[in-house]
Protein: Peptidase S8
Organism: Actinopolyspora erythraea
Amino acid sequence: MVLSDEAFARESDQVEALRSLSGAVNVASTSDYEWRALDVEQAEGADATVFADLGIGIFTADPERAASIMAAAADDPRVTAVEAERFMYALGGPEEVRSESPAVQTPSTDTGWATVRTAPVEFADTAEATWGLQATGVLDSERTGQGISVAVLDTGLDLRHPDFAGRELTARSFVSGEQAQDGNGHGTHCVGTSCGPSNPPEPPGSRRYGVAGQAEVLVGKVLGDGGSGTDTNILAAINWAISNDCRVISMSLGADIRRVSWRYETVGRRALNRGSLIVAAAGNNADRDAGNPGFVGVPANSPSIMAVGALDSRLGIANFSARSNPVDGGQVDIAAPGVEVYSTWPMDRRYRTISGTSMATPHVSGIAALLAQRTDARGEALWSELVRGAQRLELPAVDVGAGIAKAPS
């Protein structure tokens, strides 16, 4: 249930609107929990839950009762929309487009990583850094993300990973029955790209793969180890991130739904008003080789959420990367490296190379942290900085938006 701006203004009004419309007696609120981090297991005992920093309420009802509530809500000025809950998924490329590489890769002249090509330009991983950091200008930036909080909402993080030892990091699970520890790998990979260290520890050593190496990291586990989660999981983590003044919220997740969700559009707008920019993966439902350009899905198709497309090492659009959706806000806003991206993976593998708009998204999120450090921009101003700083590409804007995200000097 999406509450109107008027009802959103006061938490007591949010609770009353949810209680009166849903018939709930016991209404939980995120404000009842430390750091406004909803305990999803405790909240399961409530009849309904209010995400106080978002103006969103959730309740459980059978189809007949839900239809009755929706009919009543349609005539209630306190409610903007009522939507059924959906499942969201980690967005890897087709079959996760995973490159099966050794757990510890030691560059040599035989790998092709250091090969220099011209006409067209092609980036490649080197012993020093991934191709994505080279292409986005991160290696030339003096910024590190220090003082900026970045929330990565995904499958969690391998909290044992040595590359994050000693980092300013908070991890919470919003998935019932599962800890923040990543049992999937997708989240660990995304945290690594957005906020991995500038100088990965040795041994065994690794090329640099992380953008904002000194940013404060908030890890929200919203997808279970199987790679899926509900809107409730995601909204709980967004509420937590916003209430803790996260400048950037990175979400490499979504669903192949064309229509914009009122829920996520309202959340995106209210996040921007609070100074938090939500960055989300455009989606991997394209097969351009087969003539299918795909479309940007939920939540990235919300006008107030930045949608990220994926580029390959020649700065061409990835075969799987979704094209702009004709719905309002459904366009790709910006693009970043998303093919054969090397980053952290749960131990004992330690590192892995995979592809997807999921891998492009944390590049943009990390660069947003660098820009926030340089300019102190928040919300819409930070969005504008990202678009203004992007490098235009000789590709349709429906595929890459403003172009490739670039780090500030």
Remarks:
- The chain has two domains: 2-82, 131-399.
- The longest helix spans residues 357-375.
